[in-house]
Write a structure and sequence with these properties.
Blueprint: H1 2-37, E1 44-47, E2 52-58, E3 63-69, E4 72-77, E5 81-86
Antiparallel strand pairs: 1-2, 1-5, 2-3, 3-4
Subcellular location: Cell membrane
Family: Belongs to the YajC family.
Pfam family, one: YajC
């Protein structure tokens, strides 16, 4: 009986850590992955380095080309995009 009473505080601490730290972080990571997967040409984005630009080309699964000034294009890794400022509307088919 004493062994069970000694384990209960550890179980409670783990449960609290899970709901306060681990679960919200997993949710935030999933939202970021969905945002990055939904990038399309014309979206205005901000990179983790603070560069603001417009997506000019979605190259492949891991790379995006961003226009940061007229005629100046930069290739960046998708995961370095921290937020989408303005989304473009999908083209009507």
């Amino acid at each position: 009986m004493e062994a069970i009473q000694g384990i209960i505080p550890f179980i409670l601490i783990f449960a609290i850590m899970y709901f306060l730290l681990i679960r919200p972080q997993q949710k935030k990571l999933k939202e970021h992955q969905n945002m990055v997967a939904a990038l399309r040409r014309g979206d205005q984005v901000v990179t983790q380095g603070g560069i603001i630009g417009k997506v000019s080309k979605v190259k492949d699964d891991n790379e995006v080309e961003i226009e940061i000034a007229s005629g100046v294009n930069v290739r960046v890794v998708r995961s370095t995009i921290s937020q989408v400022v303005n989304r473009t509307e999908p083209a009507n088919s």
